[in-house]
UniProtKB/TrEMBL annotation:
Protein's UniProt name: Neuropeptide Y receptor type 1
CDD domains (alphabetical): 7tmA_NPYR-like
UniProt keyword list: G-protein coupled receptor, Membrane, Receptor, Transducer, Transmembrane, Transmembrane helix
Region (Disordered): 1-21
Subcellular location: Membrane
Organism from which the protein derives: Mizuhopecten yessoensis (Japanese scallop)
Upper taxonomic lineage: Eukaryota, Metazoa, Spiralia, Lophotrochozoa, Mollusca
InterPro entries named among the record's database cross-references: GPCR_Rhodpsn, GPCR_Rhodpsn_7TM, NPY_rcpt
């Protein structure tokens, strides 16, 4: 930026097609005419905040996240729905988390890329309002679901809660989670709008999708509430419950010897619960690591944007967004590597598809082999190399005379067919005669 000085219109040569502001308009600005030309030229020649290499890196990263996030979470939902032994309360919570990640991958990430990279917002005001609103909803749903998973594990391990009753409560818990998340995200819909950015009075640069709050106090208050509800409160609940569960498991494992079969089974179950705790803690920590940087820089930018002076804030925000969106890929990876039930079902599903493919190839080959044999037999019949239908009937009569049907007496077995007591081969073809009776 330059100094707040006045420049005459003849001090420099203006680029072609650039309309300079009046001197009175420049008196109220804090940059020179040269700065004005540079900004205007940069906007005209580039509609992106980043260079071509950075744009390719960001687009490639977000595409990978979208593909893996969608396929991985869809596989989780499919396995939970198809397998009856996986329809537990915790797995229903996991499916709700996967559903939120799928919606984030499909509905939020593509539009977030457009908003991060392009200076001009080309999608209109409705999409400008919907994208941040939906993203906020899905973030809150994920946070609340992870917190509810911790509560469910605590009740199941420490208090031996009734699984049937908890499964009934899910009918009320899931709608409540989505409704509360929607209520918390409504300010994003209200205060987001497309604004025209001007370099000074009457000099238009581009239209951008921005937050336009009625006051700084409202913006800072909402940012503080988001941080508290999104991170501080859930983390306190999750960490506290995990500490209580770990204490309970450690106490039961250390206090009971494993000399009997029943106690050995109890110890094995508690060790399995410890693995579940490691799994759930991994999910919680990964979620905090991925979303905390973006939440913090948004909070700091709302409180005091001068903290980012001299820093490429657009690039920093893009990297934090990329890290935050990667959370949709982490959950399926954690389930696949740490949860033996899901890992076993995924392997079975892959093996089943491979086996079906092999069986299909085998059946196609067998059908082709039988067709070739039928063609060969037809050709042999045409040239008189196999018996005719009359000859076949004659051979069947002879076979019936040699192998008469037995009549059962006191036993309860059904009589064998006439051709079942012996297998007579035709001398001309070498085939069993009962096979040749098929017309």
């Amino acid at each position: 930026m330059g100094t707040n000085t006045t420049h005459s219109r003849s001090t420099a040569h203006a680029p072609d097609g650039l309309q300079l502001p009046d001197d009175d308009m420049l008196d109220t600005t804090n940059f020179s005419v040269t700065d004005f030309w540079r900004i205007q030229s940069h906007v005209e020649f580039s509609n992106n905040w980043f260079g071509s290499v950075s744009v390719c890196i960001l687009v490639f990263g977000f595409c990978l996240i979208t593909v893996f996030g969608t396929t991985g979470n869809a596989a989780m939902c499919y396995i939970i729905i198809k397998k009856k032994n996986l329809k537990s309360c915790r797995n229903w919570y996991i499916m709700n988390l996967s559903l939120s990640d799928i919606l984030t991958s499909v509905l939020c990430i593509p539009f977030t890329v457009v908003r991060l990279i392009m200076k001009h917002w080309p999608l209109g005001e409705i999409v400008c309002k919907l994208v941040p609103t939906l993203q906020t909803i899905y973030v809150f749903v994920s946070t609340f679901t992870i917190m509810l998973i911790a509560v469910d594990r605590y009740r199941a391990i420490v208090h031996c809660a009734n699984a049937t009753r908890d499964r009934t409560r899910l009918m009320y818990i899931f709608p409540m989670v989505w409704m509360v998340s929607l209520a918390l995200a409504l300010p994003m819909f209200v205060f987001h709008e497309v604004e025209d950015v001007y370099i000074t009075k009457g000099i238009f640069l581009f239209s951008s999708c921005l937050e336009n709050w009625s006051s700084d106090i409202a913006r800072k208050s909402y940012a503080s509430v988001i941080l508290g509800i999104h991170f501080i409160f859930p983390m306190i609940v999750i960490v506290s419950l995990h500490i209580l569960i770990c204490k309970f498991i450690r106490t039961h494992i250390e206090s009971k010897p494993s000399y009997s079969r029943e106690l050995h089974r109890s110890r094995r179950n508690l060790l399995r619960q410890r693995k579940n705790i490691i799994l759930l803690t991994s999910i919680t920590v990964s979620f905090a690591i991925t979303w905390l940087p973006l939440t913090l820089i948004n909070l700091l930018a709302d409180l005091n944007y001068h903290l980012f002076t001299g820093i490429n804030f657009n690039w920093l925000k893009a990297v934090c967004h990329l890290l935050a969106m990667s959370s949709v890929c982490i959950n399926p990876i954690i389930y696949g590597w740490f949860n033996s039930n899901f890992r076993r079902e995924i392997k079975a599903m892959i093996c089943r598809r491979r086996r079906e493919k092999d069986n299909k190839s085998f059946l196609m080959g067998l059908t082709e082999h039988r067709s070739s044999r039928c063609r060969d037999r037809i050709e042999l019949g045409v040239y008189g190399l196999i018996p005719t239908r009359t000859d076949i009937r004659t051979m069947e009569t002879r076979t019936a005379e040699v192998c008469p049907t037995e009549t059962p007496h006191d036993h309860h077995l059904s009589p064998l067919p006439a051709t079942g007591c012996c297998v007579e081969a035709d001398t001309a073809t070498g085939l069993p005669t009962h096979l040749l009776s098929v017309s």
